[in-house]
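$ fold --in a.seq
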Amino acid sequence: MSFQNPVFIPGPTNIPERLRKACDMPTIDHRSPLFGQILHPARAGVQAVLKSETAEVFIFPSTGTGGWETALTNTLSAGDGVLAARNGMFSHRWIDMCQRHGLAVEVVETPWGEGLPADRYEEILTADTEHRIKAVLATHNETATGVRSDIAAVRRALDKAGHPALLFVDGVSSIGSMDFRFDDWGVDVAVTGSQKGFMLPAGLAIVGFSPKAMEATRTGTLPRTFFDVHDMARGYANSAYPYTPAVGLMNGLNEACGMLLDEGLENVFARHHRIAEGVRAAVRAWGLDLCAASPDVYSDTVSAIRTPEGFNATDIVTHAASKYGVAFGVGLGEVAGKVFRIGHLGSLTDVMTLSGIATAEMCMADLGLDVPLGSGVAAAQAYFRSHSAASVLKAA
């Protein structure tokens, strides 16, 4: 692999030089007032990115998986009911975690490539008159399939059913890249990580808790120590942690939030959509299909691209790495070998994206697929030329 080429995996994403420098800092005493000057602005920045005025933000030295565990263990008790749809590898893994914690999960099996079935959620929640279901899981952006689900529709399902369950949302590959509305959507726990939209190395689990979720932490009895939000809150009150924090990453997170807010969240979302549309134009020009079943569920952070029947899509990823020093994402779970993934989130531009599209074309041509060189690049160029950042801003 070449360190000079951008990566096109759906996380960890490319790290801007500004954030690399922010993470590369001298050691400080994390129990001194100086740490508070990093901690508190970082938490406030995350709250702004979540579009929330109410979320209590907690930042753990971990990853998004640790964020999942934080949501579960702080609010639920063994045997509690959980409602979740399995529509990809990451929703599957969160379900598996619930089951390992002794939670009673009602799984709605959903074809990989489709979004969350909010109508089915409403039916199940309406029938749960005894309110055995304590939490509803929703994967906003299923990274394995390139599918974005409608979280507002899930909230409406809860409200129409008149159900008091908590709404937990996995926003690991969406927050900081696609529109996320913690307050407007009535999210109770949002989970993300440092290595996607925040453009940092992996190492931070970032969660937001609603007041309702914080109240649930007083009755949840699942074991928790490292991920105890009350321990963390007591530390925050003293500008500290209950253990050693990842100070450099925290400093980077503070800077990352500043970058996103300086660009303007709506501009960040527009940039991701524009780049994603360029990739999708290339896919159409190649004569291939996306794993996502329809345009209304297309992700703006990752495209999972189906290859012809009988062709091993993983070969494209392997060939790109070995011959061209470029990283794409492999297919996972049910779509392993059937798709390859182009991540288009974080620190990425139209021009960088064109290099990834060109590399994918070379790989497919090298491996014998009937993909004319330049076809996808030309389609993406045409889109970018008519939808430049300047023209989008002018239209807005």
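$ fold --in b.seq
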Amino acid sequence: MMSDDAGLRNRGRERSDVDERRNAIERMTGAKLDHISSYSFDPVSAGKNIENMIGAVQVPLGFAGPVKVNGEHAKGEFMIPLATTEGALVASVSRGMSVITSSGGANVKVFKDAMTRAPVFSVRGIDHASDVILWIGKNEKRIKDAVNGTTSHGKLVDIEPFPNGRSLFLRFSYDTGDAMGMNMVTIATEAVCRLIEKETGAVLVSASGNMCTDKKPAWINAIEGRGKSVIAEAVIPADIVKNKLHASVDSIIDVNTRKNLIGSSLAGSMGNNAHAANMAAALYIATGQDPAQVVEASLTMTTCESADGDLYISVRMPAVEVGTVGGGTRLPSQSEALNIMGCLGTGKAKKLAELVAVTVLAGELSTLGAQAAGHLGKAHKELGR
């Protein structure tokens, strides 16, 4: 165990190294990095998050809410931290949350939870591919033992084969607990791949064959899900739609149908939503998630219909890839943001996923209302300049 004095010396060296690298960049580029040099956390705490650290970039942080949530894991009223440089976003989400709360809250549920990694193997042909698939089916215990030798937190759920000529893709799905889990599943999958190579003669080409699919828009994620698949819904009474959104139920349904469903289809979009990525990005950045996985959050489908004259609205998010331990959640500002929602630490990842979906629901509702009322440009002119 490192002594307190040794720990202080280590932190001092790391701070000195950060300063030296930043000073070198200033000399090389002529840029002054006065603000980048100002940050409150210990550089040692970022050691697993970044290399060649020279400082920190600050993003304005606001909050939306309160929003009432009737979830399996998130229950009660929540304030939601959002980090963004886009004026009008927090105000819009807050308006949507106010409408949802006035209507009794949002219902939300996690329907599936599995992080994936899909290696690709070279095989001799389709007979060899079939033999490998049969071997996998007959050796479940050996495969799970290989996984368990790399992690005490991740559990293998399924291996789905996709043969294609002399290529064999295997889509591994894991329960990763409260971690987002990409590193965990990669290491575990590589261990299984070594076993498959040894026992079947298939040759691993890449631990990721892009059928995972990570940080790229993909129909396999939209259909089968990746991370947490979440649906949030709310019923907004017609009088609240009129008084708070200044629109009618029919006009919001019409905007959603023509914009999110028809327009997205004509464009070939993989997401049928107004701007789901906007809310996901702000919440991901605030809480130390991987912002590149906003790509998968953009696969959201927003639906609206009449519920006996009231507005029913829902969002289906098939790939909410978030964690409440590890990764960027270790950093102090991000930990504090998670604490605002009571989402830091073990047993909280599904709660966070539910709050992501409700936040997206609120943003979608507010934006559709603004467009139905013809107020979108006005709000951006007043708040986003």
